[in-house]
Specification:
The complex is a heterodimer. Chain A is mostly helical. Chain A has 4 helices and no strands. Classes of the chains: A mainly alpha, B mainly alpha.
Chain lengths: 102, 286
């Protein structure tokens, strides 16, 4: 009785993992838009990172080549980088004083 | 009654504690450029007791004897000499309207480098020498030149050369906007940025004299006095704008535009804290 149930679970797990890794063009577009928005926020704080721009460019290049898995992964990485740069700008508003020569 | 007294006592203790913690914060937040400059100089002279105050303007070449000897030999045939010649020629050559750069500056532009940047009370902003040169061009119907290329380096090199030995004399007028510009420059200097999470101070306060890859880091004290500089790494001259933007990109931060307010304020702060040290530009760096 247990065997068919575990087989079913395995099939479901495999199916769900396939869904998780096979990104579509729509997934890429959503991830890219989110990354761009986060990078705009960093620009407003005057604190963009060069790596965000490079990772966004890598995402676009992968998407142009039809590799939406890589494109989506890069776009998500770019969003994380942009958010980190905004966090840095915000936290440094006060933290810079720790380094000051007094 | 006891409860009431205890409450009052607790409340008084809390107020006292709040004041105790609030007082240093207020003192620390007070903008005091004179105290800053004094502390800045003390920090570097304590860190490098063998280096004479006026020698800090030689950057990495002031940091050890071997490097100092290299610098003395380099000065025999300075690599920035071609830039000086070009700068002098550009500076004296009339614009199409017959005027020259001389007409835009006090004392015809000779021996005035130590007074830049200054705070323009009319405009409410910091005016750097590079900015003033481009404004001079535009006022005379000429297109502006790049802030990061050879022509700007040559013009500022020539002007710095005519001021060699004169102590930096940056003034902060009695105008709250000038103090704010100074403070913003200080904040920029100490703020970490870029993916490497470096501030200007990470290299030029925490680590001068140490190597970052093949380079020996310059102390922040006197760093502006040597601008513009010939850098062997660049195989050419570099302006202050080039130095600032390159520093930003080296720590993986997107540089701002040359002469954006942040960079002008930064130059104002860095120059002010080096007041009294002689102009040594144009400089040469490894």
């Amino acid at each position: 009785m247990n065997t068919p149930r575990s087989a079913l679970v395995s099939i479901l797990l495999i199916a769900s993992s396939v869904c998780a890794f096979a990104a579509t063009e729509a997934d890429y577009k959503a991830a890219y838009a989110a990354a761009e928005a986060a990078n705009k926020e960093a620009a407003a704080l005057r604190n963009q990172w060069t790596t965000t721009a490079a990772t966004l460019a890598a995402a676009k290049k992968a998407a142009d080549a039809g590799d939406f898995d890589a494109a989506t992964a890069s776009a998500r990485e770019a969003e994380a980088l942009a958010k980190a740069s905004s966090f840095q700008a915000t936290s440094e508003k006060e933290r810079w004083k720790d380094m000051e020569i007094r | 009654m006891k409860l009431r007294s205890a409450t009052q006592l607790a409340s008084a203790a809390l107020t006292l504690a709040a004041l105790t913690f609030a007082a240093p914060a207020t003192a620390a937040d007070k903008i005091d450029p004179v105290a800053d400059a004094k502390a800045f100089k003390k920090f570097f002279t304590d860190k490098f007791p063998k280096v004479k105050l006026e020698d800090f303007v030689n950057g990495p070449y002031s940091m050890d004897e071997g490097l100092h000897r290299q610098w003395e030999e380099k000065e025999q045939f300075p690599p920035y000499e071609f830039s000086l010649d070009m700068g002098k020629e550009m500076f004296t050559k009339p614009f199409k309207n017959g005027k020259t750069y001389e007409d835009c500056f006090p004392n015809k532009g000779i021996g005035i480098r130590q007074n830049y940047p200054y705070f323009d009370e009319k405009e409410g902003k910091v005016i750097t020498l590079e900015l003033a040169l481009n404004r001079c061009r535009e006022a005379n119907g000429e297109p502006p030149i790049s802030y990061v290329r050879d022509e700007m380096a040559a013009l500022t090199a020539y002007m710095a050369f005519t001021s060699r030995g004169k102590p930096f004399d940056i003034k902060i007028p009695n105008d709250p906007r000038a103090l704010e510009a100074y403070q913003r420059g200080k904040e920029y200097f100490y703020t970490r940025r870029g993916q490497l999470n470096f501030s200007c101070a990470t290299c030029h306060v925490q680590s001068p004299g140490e190597r970052i890859r093949a380079e020996v880091l310059a102390p922040a004290l006197g760093i502006m006095n040597a601008m513009p500089i010939y850098r062997s790494e660049w195989s050419g001259m570099g302006t202050t704008s080039r130095r600032f933007t390159t520093c930003n990109s080296q720590i993986r931060g997107v540089p701002l535009n040359p002469q954006d307010d942040e960079y002008r304020d930064l130059e104002y702060y860095l120059s002010y804290v080096s007041n009294g040290l002689p102009i040594s530009g144009p400089g040469a760096r490894p």
